Every structure is written in structure tokens, then in C-alpha cells.
């Protein structure tokens, strides 16, 4: 049976993944409701973030993926993207892949027929859901096979997904391409907005997320302005991912719906 509702909207079932904007939670594992927890980037837990329509970024792997799998089983018409940072350079085949297998995420993961895959070549959300392969995972380091045999369901991020700078402290979010690799042009990459505003902690030079500005930063006007500023660098299209801190604050979903042309 073909999916008739995809990620909450019938209109998205026929929309290619590469032409869809998703709301993302930056450092989704770093959640706390304590306002004195200065290193927090989110205020609600992982399941609550997923229920807001959020993609995943980071976290303790096995428990994290078990939470994801439980949520996926309860939400069969959702396409989910996982963005992981491999800052410790852990082996993809020896460390990361077994965690995916243990949680059962490998069985629902999409494997592109081409690697790298052009933005225009991705299937529709409906096709991903109908195939049962509706999780797309990107890894920022090691997934290109440099540390051993590549794992086909863990994709090298920057050959297919470009990023502007992160740790912005300027609320106007001036845009440039910061991380990109591989043979594809910027226009053929998926793209991301790192729409996370940081502040200098007590003048120490340590940058932390700025919860006081979240309602403005996560507002429609700020997100759309950032998208418009980056669009000329990626062929005039909307970003595929809008990464926010404090996703429960502001109008992130409203902005993403606007970028998707949804009411």
C-alpha cells in the first residue's frame, strides 16, 4: 500500500528527499530543563524532539538508536535523517555499524545506488516509506572507508551534504560554504543551515548556545532570512535541513513548512 501521508503531509509523499526541507535538532542529546545547565543545547528529551518532527544530531549511540527505533516503529510514515559527528575517529565498521545493527536501524536504512548521490537523484519521501528504507544516516568523518571497509548505510556527509559555518555569534547569519568535499558541485549537494546562535560565556571566549535569543533566532523571519542568504550558493533552492538549538522554542516548524510551500 502506498503511503498517503509522509512526514505529516500528503503533499510531501511525491516530494523528492533532495527537494524537501526538514527541521533538525542540533546536539539533540545535550538536553536539560535546568536553566543553569549552560552547556545544554535542547530543553526537551530525544523522544519529545522526534515528536516535534525533528531529525537527529549526535548522542550516546546504542541507547540513542534504540530510542530512535522505538519511535520509528510507532511512526511508520516518517522519513528520518541521522547526522552523527565522529569526533573521536571511531571505526565505522567496527564500532558504529554494530550499534546500528544492535538497534535494528540497519534494516530500515536507505542505501543510495550511487555514492555520492546528486541532490536531484534522491527518491521521494513516499518511495522511501513504501520501501521500508526510511532512515538516512550521514557521518562527518570516517564513512568514506578511510578507516576500513565502508558501511553502505552510513554515508559520508560532506560528499553529499554541505554546511555553512557553525558556532555563529552574528544573528544575521552571514552565509558561506564551510564544509564540502568530493566531486559534486555545491548545487548538486544537499545543504544545511546551522541556524544556532552562540554567545561568549562571560567573556571567556567559550561559546555556548544562547537560550535568551532562541525565540527570535528560531522565528520565521530569522530562519527564512538565513535560507535566502544561503540560497545563491546552492542554486537558489531552500536548504534540506534547518538545524536549531532549543527546538521547542520559536517557530521552527512553521518556517520549515513555509520553505516546503505548505500552509
- CATH architecture identity: Alpha-Beta Barrel
Largest pleated sheet: 8 strands, parallel
- Secondary-structure-based class equals alpha/beta
The CATH class:
Alpha Beta
Low-confidence stretches: 28-43, 53-58
The CATH topology, please? TIM Barrel
| General form | globular
Number of structurally distinct domains: 1
Total strands: the figure is 10
Task: Quote the average pLDDT.
Answer: 86
Q: Biggest sheet, strands in spatial order?
A: 5-4-3-2-1-10-7-6
Rounded to the nearest angstrom, the distance between the terminal CA atoms is 26 Å
- Radius of gyration computed on alpha carbons: 17 Å
User: What string gives the helices and strands in order?
Assistant: EHEHEHHEEEEEEHHEH
Q: What do we call the CATH homologous superfamily?
A: Phosphatidylinositol (PI) phosphodiesterase
- State the helicity in percent bands: 10-25%
Amino acid at each position: 500500500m502506498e503511503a498517503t501521508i509522509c512526514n505529516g503531509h500528503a503533499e510531501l509523499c511525491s516530494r523528492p528527499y533532495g527537494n524537501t526541507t526538514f527541521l533538525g535538532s542540533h546536539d539533540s542529546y545535550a538536553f536539560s530543563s535546568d536553566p543553569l545547565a549552560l552547556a545544554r543545547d535542547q530543553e526537551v528529551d530525544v523522544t519529545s524532539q522526534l515528536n516535534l518532527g525533528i531529525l537527529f544530531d549526535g548522542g550516546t549511540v546504542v541507547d540513542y538508536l534504540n530510542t530512535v527505533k522505538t519511535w520509528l516503529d510507532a511512526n511508520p510514515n516518517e522519513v528520518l535523517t541521522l547526522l552523527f559527528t565522529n569526533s573521536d575517529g571511531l571505526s565505522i565498521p567496527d564500532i558504529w555499524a554494530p550499534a546500528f545493527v544492535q538497534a535494528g536501524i540497519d534494516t530500515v536504512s536507505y542505501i543510495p545506488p550511487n555514492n555520492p548521490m546528486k541532490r536531484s537523484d534522491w527518491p521521494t519521501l513516499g518511495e522511501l516509506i513504501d520501501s521500508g528504507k526510511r532512515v538516512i544516516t550521514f557521518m562527518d568523518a570516517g564513512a568514506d572507508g578511510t578507516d576500513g571497509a565502508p558501511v553502505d548505510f552510513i554515508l559520508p556527509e560532506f560528499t553529499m551534504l554541505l554546511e555553512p559555518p557553525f558556532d555563529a555569534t552574528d544573528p544575521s547569519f552571514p552565509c558561506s560554504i564551510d564544509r564540502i568535499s568530493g566531486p559534486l558541485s555545491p548545487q548538486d549537494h544537499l545543504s544545511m543551515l546551522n541556524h544556532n546562535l552562540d554567545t561568549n560565556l562571560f567573556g571567556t571566549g567559550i561559546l555556548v548556545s544562547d537560550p535568551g535569543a532562541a525565540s527570535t533566532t528560531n522565528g520565521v523571519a530569522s530562519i527564512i532570512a538565513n535560507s535566502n542568504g544561503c540560497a545563491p550558493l546552492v542554486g537558489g533552492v531552500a536548504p534540506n535541513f534547518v538545524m536549531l538549538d532549543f527546538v521547542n522554542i520559536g517557530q521552527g516548524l512553521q518556517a520549515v513548512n513555509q520553505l516546503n510551500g505548505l500552509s
